[in-house]
């Protein structure tokens, strides 16, 4: 689609001000859907929270489904953009996974609505739901493979390990990020990382 | 509540025939909600699938919410009843986790609607959703602690390990059980179990 002519239905903002309005609408949608869920949430609730007119909404989004899909993709990108640069600073492949979980826990604690939004996509927009997890797992598989090539982790890592580690992170984020954040994130990340590094088999 | 007098709203079946009808309604509800989701699913759709009258429905359930809650608890119990006896036959604590994942993958492949139902509880009945995962994690924590006491796994296992392993299993079940079951369940369980046993740190 990169070479396609501009779509007359294209709602991409063309100015910095437009981009700010679109972002304000996405933030408002995160609050609205995070609190009320997709079915109870409404476009008027979103524009009220964003402090903008209904007409502005339709400048950037075609419908409630459309902004929900955009929100899922946006939150998926926000997690990636928060976690990826932190992981890039890791010493090796095992530490990368500790930092990956630690920064994901930090993100989940600061954006507790993320679970409700991404999980509800399973029912509202299955393609966006699958894309979020498949893209995350694909990035992790590449990261693990490169660490294996550098000799930092076992040579036989593959997609199964990525899905396993992603699943760990998602459930630890739910339990120790969203439901109860009383234990230090560093402690949770360290314990899980020991499992990844050495397993729990008898030493 | 164990000592409370019988509740006149108690809808527990008193006969074997009543128990069969209740079970038929739960199976029909699993199909109905699994295909249509909670919002689109209906009581009349459930009774049609179960081949029973609307009056029978209200003999056993008070509402659509009520049968949904009962279904989540029932599916949670079905997984436990499928997995637990298989785990009990394991040689040690590490093998118990391999068999736990293997039997969960088998269950998910045979009951692909389980994810849609339990995941939708996050929106329809948050208490039932939390109970499912908290009960599962509590059982795993006890299992890991006993294996540690027997010296089969690391002595410092705790709740965090249970949530980590449960998260692995849930995501591996989604990816290799529900979305794509082309790889043998034994292979997935073996790879994940190596991660649990020895980790993926450089050997």
Throw out a few tags for this protein.
homodimer, 203 residues, mainly alpha, Arc Repressor Mutant, subunit A, Tetracycline Repressor, domain 2, 2 domains, elongated, disordered N terminus, HTH_TetR (chains A, B)
Task: Walk me through this protein's architecture.
Chains A, B: InterPro entries: Homeodomain-like_sf, HTH-type_Tx_Regulator, HTH_TetR, Tet_transcr_reg_TetR-rel_C_sf. Chains A, B: Keywords: DNA-binding. Chains A, B: It comes from Sphingobium olei. Chains A, B: This is TetR/AcrR family transcriptional regulator. Chains A, B: Residues 1-20 are annotated as: Disordered. The structure is a homodimer of 203-residue chains. The first copy, chain A, has 9 helices and no strands. By secondary structure, chain A is an all-alpha fold. Chain A folds into 2 domains: 13-61, Arc Repressor Mutant, subunit A (Orthogonal Bundle), CATH 1.10.10; 65-198, Tetracycline Repressor, domain 2 (Orthogonal Bundle), CATH 1.10.357. Chain A starts with 15 loop residues before the first helix and ends in a 5-residue tail after the last helix. The model of chain A is unreliable at 1-6 (pLDDT under 50). The interface between A and B is large, with 48 and 48 residues.
């Amino acid at each position: 689609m990169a070479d396609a002519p501009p779509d007359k239905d294209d709602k991409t903002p063309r100015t910095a001000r437009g981009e700010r309005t679109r972002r304000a609408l996405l933030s408002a949608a995160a609050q609205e859907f995070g609190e009320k869920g997709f079915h109870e949430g409404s476009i008027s609730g979103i524009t009220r929270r964003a402090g903008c007119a209904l007409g502005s909404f339709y400048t950037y989004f075609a419908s409630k489904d459309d902004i929900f899909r955009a929100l899922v993709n946006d939150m998926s990108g926000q997690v990636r953009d928060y976690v990826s640069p932190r992981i890039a600073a890791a010493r090796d492949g095992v530490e990368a996974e500790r930092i990956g979980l630690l920064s994901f826990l930090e993100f989940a604690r600061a954006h507790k609505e993320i679970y409700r939004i991404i999980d509800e996509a399973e029912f509202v927009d299955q393609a966006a739901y699958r894309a979020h997890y498949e893209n995350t797992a694909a990035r992790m598989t590449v990261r693990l493979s490169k660490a294996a090539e550098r000799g930092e982790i076992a040579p036989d890592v593959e997609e199964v390990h990525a899905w396993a580690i992603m699943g760990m992170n998602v459930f630890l984020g739910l339990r120790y990020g969203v439901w109860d954040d009383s234990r230090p994130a560093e402690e949770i990340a360290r314990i899980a990382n020991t499992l990844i590094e050495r397993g729990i088999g008898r030493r």
